[in-house]
Amino acid sequence: MKKIKLQSFEEWEKKKLKDPEFVKACEEPDDDPFIETAWQLLKLREKMGLTQKEFAKKLHVPQEAIARLESPRYRGYSLQTLHKIASTFDKKLQIRFI
Amino acid sequence: MKKIKLQSFEEWEKKKLKDPEFVKACEEPDDDPFIETAWQLLKLREKMGLTQKEFAKKLHVPQEAIARLESPRYRGYSLQTLHKIASTFDKKLQIRFI
DNA sequence: TGACAAAATAACAAAATTGTTATATAATAG
DNA sequence: CTATTATATAACAATTTTGTTATTTTGTCA
């Protein structure tokens, strides 16, 4: 029997808010693009209704790789990786200097 | 005597359009985020009215590093690099999946 | 044309990211 | 509480990107 219940965003937010670095970044008006990216990735996955493991499978990487990308402390993003994710889920990656 | 004359966008576009890969990417409706990033970087530099060398100096890297980032064939972007550029020029890097 | 400035290309070591495995922590259902 | 699922953390080799130097091509202007 397949479980499709996921943690809600609210739960996730609550959990992440216990992380001092995450809180700090959220408080900054010009918020950090790395944390912002982690959020975007999580939101994408949630929209798809997938667990990290399922999401990871579509990208042919293990779950741990997705956990790392969604971590608020991760700063190692490459456009290659983000583009690969975007196209796997029929999205377009947009990059801007605003 | 200091020259501040730069190639215009039109000139640049004309030049790049001779590049088959560039043309191909531009023709695709869901245009490539790598080429798009190269454009964004060039536009940012143009707005600042800087040569590659001057732009590079503010980032503490040689001109060649900027030429590479502005090349339509470059696919090695990291958010670290893009963020460094954004903040050096008081911009915010925006990343989205659309 | 020649001299000079701007930009592009190439090559390589150093640094950073990715994929991977193992393991730990957290949440949920029973 | 226990079993199970979901997510997080750590460590390391393989791959990729960065910084760098050298060189080349392109454009501008006298």
TrEMBL record, chains A, B:
Coiled-coil residues: none
SUPFAM superfamilies: lambda repressor-like DNA-binding domains
Alphabetical list of Pfam families matching this protein: HTH_3
InterPro entries: Cro/C1-type_HTH, Lambda_DNA-bd_dom_sf
Entry superkingdom: Bacteria
A GO molecular function held by the record: DNA binding
Chain ranges of the HTH cro/C1-type domain: 41-96
Annotated protein name in UniProt: HTH cro/C1-type domain-containing protein
Native organism: Candidatus Desantisbacteria bacterium CG1_02_38_46
Taxonomic lineage: Bacteria, Candidatus Desantisiibacteriota
